[in-house]
Amino acid sequence: MEAAGISTIALSMVPALTAAAGAPRVAAIEFPFGRPLGQPGDSDMQRAVLRATLETLRDATAPGTVVELPFKWPEPPDQVHWHPKEPSPIGRLLASDPSLFKQLLKGEIPAAASRRAP
Amino acid sequence: MVDSFRYLSPTSTAIVKMLIARAPAEPIPWAPLPRPLAEATIALVSTAALSMATDAAFDTEGERANPWWGDPSYRIIPRTATERDIVASHLHIESAYLHDDLDVALPLRRLEELVRGGLVGGAAPSHYSFQGYLLDPSEFLAASVPAMVEQMKREAVDAAVFIPV
């Protein structure tokens, strides 16, 4: 995308991964998955987060810029629910077969990842 | 200090650390913002597997049948879309929040407000979503990214804001 002349920025809740993947500009935020801009109905927070992200896009001058945004999630940690009601298919598969999890942690991604039908 | 692992389980933390360790060390690409932000056209890109209810949804059945695979396609979400118009098909997050208020993940209304306030030049007619769980992103990179770039160029987009969920 940058090669096509389009500037990019990522608003990331896992900035360590986003930066490692080679993102040119990262606005880092410690919010739960599924709600990177804030809570439903909290327009002021959502606008402030998007504004800070766009200001990071505007002000970054070097590849690999990571700016930590100062926002705090408004719920106590034990009240944060972000997981789906039904566990993800890969989560269930790995839980059912620890050898697959060990294999994945070695960086061995099965060929089945590349095709819809295994 | 933003903790990347604050909301991840030990299992997911281990997988993310593996992905960080095996990320190839390549030069970071860089395109300067081609014009001042106050004159720039912006497109948003969400990884929440959002589709318009009138379009085909992302393929969750394929992922259920083969949990290693994720749908590598993308969808266009028009600037005027709201939570009433979209379907979210991401099997790794609770999607109820963005069905209540799309701006928690794809802040189209907030972007319009920042355009009206003068921070940003304009919102592109088209915004984008794909499904972020892609252990093998090669098809996404080979097919979906070039197609999104082509549409962005047609709409004179200056910058894209990626919003992982």
Please explain how this structure is put together.
Chain A is an alpha/beta fold and 118 residues long. Chain A contains four helices and three strands. A three-stranded parallel sheet of chain A has the order 1-2-3. In chain A, strand 1, helix 1 and strand 2 form a beta-alpha-beta unit. In chain A, helix 3 crosses helix 4. In chain B, the strands form two sheets. In chain B, strands 1, 3, 5, 6 and 7 form a five-stranded mixed sheet that branches. Classes of the chains: A alpha/beta (118), B alpha/beta (165). Strand 1 of chain A pairs parallel with strand 7 (159-163) of chain B, so a sheet runs across the interface.
Write a compact overview of the structure shown.
Chain A is built from four helices and three strands. Chain A is an alpha/beta fold.
Helix and strand succession of chain B? Answer: HEEHEEHHEEHE
Question: In what range is the share of β-strand residues of chain A?
Answer: 5-15%
Counted by DSSP, the helix tally of chain B is 5
Spans of at least 5 consecutive residues with low confidence of chain B: none
Largest sheet of chain A: 3 strands, parallel
Shape of chain A: globular
Strands, helices and their partners?
The complex is a heterodimer of chains A (118) and B (165).
Chain A: E1 7-12, H1 15-20, E2 25-28, H2 43-59, E3 65-68, H3 89-96, H4 98-105
Parallel strand pairs in A: 1-2, 2-3
Helix pairs in contact in A: 3-4
Chain B: H1 10-21, E1 41-46, E2 50-52, H2 60-65, E3 74-78, E4 86-88, H3 96-100, H4 108-116, E5 122-123, E6 126-130, H5 138-154, E7 159-163
Parallel strand pairs in B: 1-5, 1-6, 1-7
Antiparallel strand pairs in B: 2-4, 3-6
